[in-house]
Amino acid sequence: MLLAVLGMAVLACQEMKKEETTAVGLPEMSREIMAKSVIYEANIRQYSPEGSFNAFAQDLPELKKLGVDIIWLMPVYPISTTNSKGTLGSYYAVSDYTAVNPEFGTLADLKALINQAHELGMYVILDWVPNHTGWDHHWLKSHPDWYTQNEQGQPTHPVGTDWTDTADLNYDSAEMRAQMVKDMQYWITEAHIDGFRCDMAGMVPVDFWATTIPALRAMKPIMMLAEAWEPALIDAGFDMAYGWETHHISNRIARAENDVNAWRHRMDEVSSMYPSGTILMNFTSNHDENSWNGSAPERLGPALETAAALMYTAPGMPLIYSGQEYNLDKRLLFFEKDSIDRVKSTMFGVYERLGALKKATNALDAGHDGAAYKDLPNSAGDRVLSFERSKGEDRLYYIANFSAEPKSFTVDITGSLIDYMTGQTREFAPGDTWTLAPYQYHILLPKTP
């Protein structure tokens, strides 16, 4: 009964969004939309053998099936060849902020991708690289004072990094700041994008964001995602930051390097550290993690699905990185051409169901007026995680065994409950013993009469 209601709710939501899109265009980006959103990071170069906007656009309906609402395009700009790394260079060594990488296609192709996403009810944000440019960027010739200079008066790469393929920008320059804003505004006007994911946002002065974000939002409501964790960036106007520590802790728990008490401490930390309404992005992988630290299956092993479900049920917005829906089990090359084997696996169905759940219950709402999080102690102690999410009349339980051994325990969860992922129903009375197989998890919903 409950599963049928959930399915009807998802279909109704999709039909309503379709009607709004058809009648008056895509609804404006809002906190209400972000509260139920799933975000997808698109690595255009590696997504397909063609590595093009057009090839990626063909799969937009598949992403819609996963419940994806926001598509984050990794940098789409031309890449510098001077001091570049590898054969193709880094996406983050930009040579022109207002042009398109011909490797991916044309500006018209990019616009077509964005328009198609909008027609499907999905938003598109661009990866923006504000801390540095590639060495071919025309600013280096026309405005060398816009860059950080060494003792010899020469532009330098970001100090303390190995990003030798980039030149560090100098935010003491008011002219550079002004041009940066204009270049960001160009994409809102020219391609009707819906926001930005800002690379290394914490390495840029906070006061730049405090003035720039309102200037961008004066043009249209947009989403701003910071690749950073600092609470000050939320105060400056960003809607969402990275849940980096959440990610690291979940990795360590899956590998038995931490117990679930580390997760409990992290949830307490998040609630005390960030302003009310902050959304953190939850993920088991992204382009950095995949290429440099290993694929999600490599890092999480048998806890892969359990950790994915945790990212959806924990407070925040869940991310899918390109290929995760196909159980990507390799490290994608970063400076060379590579490709994802897009063959549907069990994970496609897992993400599809998790995405539908995110839409269908208020118990997973993020941000302002978001759902409450409550830890539920259990007698298994440090290897079983159990918590409740709730908002209004909606309630949800997540319970998981993060160990290689079966665990039997008691926990204060009672009533008639349905396992969302399997559809099975069980009655739980106070004091009942629960038993979970290694790395088994449940997402439990109260069964409605």
Write up this protein.
β12 and β13 form a beta hairpin. The radius of gyration is 22 Å and the shape is elongated. The chain has 2 domains: 30-371, Alpha-Beta Barrel (TIM Barrel), CATH 3.20.20.80; 384-446, Sandwich (Immunoglobulin-like), CATH 2.60.40. An 8-stranded parallel barrel has the order 1-2-3-6-7-8-9-10. A 6-stranded antiparallel β-sheet has the order 11-12-13-18-15-16. It is α/β, with parallel strands linked by helices and 449 residues long. The chain has helices at residues 2-24, 31-35, 44-47, 53-57, 60-65, 107-119, 139-142, 174-191, 206-217, 231-235, 244-254, 260-273, 287-293, 296-300, 304-313, 346-360; strands at residues 39-42, 70-73, 123-128, 132-134, 166-168, 195-198, 223-226, 240-242, 279-282, 317-321, 372-375, 384-391, 394-401, 407-409, 415-419, 425-428, 434-436, 441-446.
Keywords:
449 residues; alpha/beta; TIM Barrel; elongated; disordered N terminus
Would you summarize the structure shown here?
This protein has 449 residues and is an alpha/beta fold.
Radius of gyration: 22 Å
Measured between the Cα atoms of the first and last residue, the distance is 8 Å
Describe the global form: elongated
What is the CATH class name of the largest domain? Alpha Beta
The CATH topology of the largest domain is TIM Barrel
